[in-house]
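fyi for ur records
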Amino acid sequence: MTRPLRVLIALGNHGLATDEVSVLQVPEPVEIRFRRNVGRPLPGDLVEVDAHGGVAKILERDNVFGRGTSRGRFQPVAANLDTLLIVIAPEPAPSPDLLHRYIAAAHIHGIRPVVVINKSDMPIPRAPPFTHLPEMNVRVFRTRCGGAGELDGLDRFLRRGIHLLAGQSGVGKSSLANTLLPNLSLQTDRLSRATGKGRHTTTSARLLRLPGNGWLVDTPGVWEYGLWQMPVTELERGFPEFAKVAGSCRFRNCTHDHEPGCRVRAAVAEGEIAEFRYQAWLSLLSEQQRLANL
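which gave:
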């Protein structure tokens, strides 16, 4: 049995993969074909491939990261992530709502959220949640991609595992990817030649080899990031600080909104849980109720 291959990009009923232990910093992609009875793999997946290039098996995933559609359905993007790199910048002004959504999604899937403050020579607004990231157990890197570039150790941090770049338009994700991947154009060209359709490499999530043994999932294009419809218990995983007290709520199915005997609301009143985090919870809870009514 040959070693499984790591999927680089998935396009309809076919895609590209490579030997994940290859020492090449620009992996040589091979074309693979998807079978309906096996399923469609995602960038980051490990797959077993038969002698004819068909995917015979998708190996068990650690997690799947994705987003919600306008109808609240889960749309997968990549698999087996270690880190969600949430890129923000002073300009455009960072969105607290978007930051809460990304952090919640990461926790729900068991992925580590990390915030990258790009254009760090400019000041970030002195307001929560940006001033409380360490208290939220979120690691922060401060980067600047102009000139020689300053990465604050981010390049070393990414030398192992699979990491996905996310963030609103204009924060410098492309510049950051170019700084982290000095051979980005070479990898993109190789994927483009292998597919024969270069446009796919700019419209689909793609897995790129970082210096060392790490991987970066690049998701080109503008995202308006929405969560998907889910049970309240799943949404609650996105707020790990609730777990310390939620078990003491009077009702097992407490939404922490209006129910009497809610220990979470009491913890907010006592300062044990930050008010801005509770308001973020109420916002996402309201969105879930709207999705449930579609």
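The chain is about 25% helix and 20% strand. thats all i got for now
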